[in-house]
């Protein structure tokens, strides 16, 4: 097997961007396994800074700011404010996606069965959507599980935080690998 990768099978660093949906002060404490989800969102934010790929953060109106513990790793990043559940319904979000030039979107955040699912299902043709299953949640486990099944059946790729990180790294022993290692230990 050569060094070319089918985008549906393997993520490539030059074509992906991370979208952290609504990891906000008023919402995250209400989520099932919220502390674990927050920890994985922080890991994804730290990883994106180390690797240097783009991140878009969204904030649903009236749910407060993005958690400080996440914002601290995304210095200077201005969140997309939105009222729609599907992020693609926001002109600002679409403009940022288009400006990135990237076609693989890694989704994380809340709530799995609302904004994450509607964004995944609403992605325009030509985009590949990966969902970091251990970095999304809902207020109930049942809603999260239903959302994951629906997104999978709709053609989204279900992944995990570490799976994504190692796919981008591709190999051990590099300076990037050494910088990322504390995030997975």
Give a quick summary of the entry.
This protein is of the alpha/beta class and 185 residues long. It is built from seven helices and six strands; from the N terminus they run E-H-E-H-E-H-E-H-E-H-E-H-H.
Global mean pLDDT: 94
Largest sheet: 6 strands, parallel
Task: Report the radius of gyration as a whole number of Å.
Answer: 15 Å
How would you sum up the global shape? globular
N-end to C-end Cα span: 30 Å
Number of helices: 7
Low-confidence stretches: none
Strand order of the largest sheet: 3-2-1-4-5-6
Structural class label: alpha/beta
**Percent of residues in beta strands?**
15-25%
- Strand tally is 6
What is the helix/strand order?
Answer: EHEHEHEHEHEHH
Helix content: 40-55%
Describe the structure in your own words.
- The chain has 185 residues and is an alpha/beta fold.
- The protein contains seven helices and six strands; from the N terminus they run E-H-E-H-E-H-E-H-E-H-E-H-H.
- The protein has a six-stranded parallel beta sheet with strand order 3-2-1-4-5-6.
- Helix 1 (34-51) packs antiparallel against helix 7 (175-184).
- The longest helix has 18 residues, at 34-51.
- The radius of gyration is 15 Å and the shape is globular.
- The two termini are 30 Å apart.
